[in-house]
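Listing S7. Sequence submitted for prediction.
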Amino acid sequence: MTAARSQGTLAAALDHAMQRYCDRHPRSAERQAHAAKDLPGGSTRSAIYYTPFPLTWVEGRGNRLIDLDGNECLDFLGEYSAGLYGHSNEIIRAAIAKAANAGLALGGPNIYEGPLAAAIRERFPSVDLIRFTNSGTEANLMALVTVRALNPSRTRIMVFDGGYHGGVFHFRHGCSALNVPFDWLIAEYNDIEGTRRLLNANASSLCGVIVEPMLGGGCIPGTRAFLGMLREECSANAVPLIFDEVMTSRLSPSGLQGLLGLRPDLTTFGKYLGGGASFGAFGGRREIMERFDPGHASAFQHAGTFNNNVISMAAGLAGLTQVYSFDEAKRINALGDYLRSAINTIAAERELLIRATGVGSLIGLHFQSLHQTTAREDGRLKSQVREDALLQLETLFHLEMIDHGFFFGRRGYISLSLPTTTSDCDSFVAAVSSFFEEHKPSVEATLHHSQFV
């Protein structure tokens, strides 16, 4: 098939999928148009916007979502990993109701925050002390200003291309215009020797290194050798190492640091640890974190009206101590490994140009040509033509899978929730296969053409 014909076929398929989507979801379209009069883009979260308009959800039960038009989808997005417990866990709902009934915004310590801190510390041996915030973004901000304050003569912070540490720490395709204006030193993820050289050459100016043990963008796991090198070189150069486990802390009972056997100096948390409510936290070595003790001679100030709000504290405590047991953590992550393996197996057997990456219950889906051995391994796309081609394919795939009853991130992000079953995963794999049965020729031609531009 020629390049022009493949593009034409893909464009026609995409137009058809867009029209079918609009026909099935008129009330979501109407809500979007009305909301856009008051909210730029019709919502207040960039991540949840996609074309032609995002679905408006009115109800969630277990791992099912109901949209404004009454259509049901199996939820494979899991609120970008914050929805680990599903939408209606009775234990967490009861904990929230009990806390709310006892009074909101109490203005002092409450009975939940100490036990929640203890429960997190029990799972993460690298955390001697911990502080709560309201989001993972805020947790990362506090971790970074902490290491800057500990050594004011060092101002640079090493980050990694493709990394994402929140709305003001966005390093996909360089620095975001809205990033906090720190002195960033951007290295290549999983590049052991290049990063080692860069770190050692700049060690005297580095106040910290922050890294996701698995890049959230694309779910690209960091290798044990790469992350181990960071631990080794940071220790040798007295540079604090921060693991951003906002997303990955769910991937074992003690997060990816537990699976890898590594101890960072600080760890940041968020997402599911609030039980579905807003949550963030940062913690680590005692000699760092004790500076937040108001009784310390040179104490750091860390305010935040809702840091210990009773809803997040109660829901988070119930979820971590009564729902997300060690066995449950192992089960849901094994199910994610099963789904990833099933997708990659059928792709290999039928020569489907898709690949699943990730660890455990977090999965990234990638279209790739026959000549690629990795999927966005370096966190960057090689050309604008390829970027455009991938976005078209991802848009078509996303809309078609919604039509099949599956909801996940537009760029292929999947986060399984606890109610998800093996049957759900098998149905998803069947839907992926069905998509390729219909669109394989245009997918292959489009990817092959864009690969060589």
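Caption to Listing S7: primary sequence and predicted structure tokens for the chain studied. Residues 3-75+327-451 form a domain with the Aspartate Aminotransferase, domain 1 fold (CATH 3.90.1150.10). Residues 270 and 280 are 4 Å apart (CA to CA).
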